[in-house]
Amino acid sequence: MKNFIFFGKPGAGKGTQAQRVKQKYGLIHISTGDLFRKHIANKTSLGKSVQVYLDKGALVPDRVTIDMLENEFQSAENPKGYILDGFPRTVGQAKSLERFFNRLKLNLNAVVSIEVDRQLLIDRLLNRGKISGRTDDLDIVKINNRFQEYDLKTNPLIEFYQSRNLFYPIDGHGTIHEISQRLYELIDHIS
Ligand code: AMP
């Protein structure tokens, strides 16, 4: 099995690239952001409790996020592997994931970090917001809040995974195709 974390700031292209890698390698793509948005659209009790965080561009509390992620794993059958997109985003989540993988006897192959300059990310998010209708993409205050959350809570994961020799940065500039090629090369190289 191949298991990857796709890591990067908001707008880095994690979701877009995860879709392509998923197709090529037959992996299961789990995006915690997509799962939260689905719960909100379906008006589930989880959706109602997390809406306030997504609306502000703040991280959802760890316990809620971890429980949702673990449930999602249990619903998959005979997977070839997983791409986690947007999870973990805090050291607490990363430690929980480590324990969860140990329990399931799963191995984490790599944390692939898609690296893009911040100003380009902001432009991309504002453009994406016009197309996707995601309210947290259209509003610069919310976008800035998401970057602040990233700097404070998610950035420490770089050191966490570097110390485990699992952190692999790739250049996230260029066309979607170019970035995918870099990812495929990396994935073929490390697994
Ligand atoms: P994304 O689609 O990954 O940009 O996530 C959208 C929003 O969902 C984030 O701004 C958070 O409010 C929430 N979210 C997604 N993943 C996580 C996570 N791992 N931990 C906490 N909140 C999350």
Tell me about this structure.
The protein is an alpha/beta fold. The protein has helices at residues 14-25, 32-41, 45-56, 62-74, 91-104, 118-132, 135-138, 140-154, 156-162, 176-190; strands at 2-7, 28-31, 81-85, 110-115, 167-171. Helix 1 (14-25) packs across helix 10 (176-190) and helix 4 runs parallel beside helix 5 (91-104). The protein binds adenosine monophosphate. Adenosine monophosphate is lined by residues 10, 32-33, 36, 53-54, 57-60, 65, 86-89, 93, 136, 146.
Topology of this structure?
Layout: E1 2-7, H1 14-25, E2 28-31, H2 32-41, H3 45-56, H4 62-74, E3 81-85, H5 91-104, E4 110-115, H6 118-132, H7 135-138, H8 140-154, H9 156-162, E5 167-171, H10 176-190
The protein binds adenosine monophosphate (AMP).
Largest sheet: 5 strands, parallel
Number of strands: 5
**Radius of gyration, in angstroms, nearest whole number:** 16 Å
Instruction: Name the ligand types.
Output: adenosine monophosphate
Shape summary: globular
How many helices? The count is 10
The helix-strand sequence is EHEHHHEHEHHHHEH
Strand content: 5-15%
Q: Spans of 5+ residues with little confidence (pLDDT < 50)?
A: none
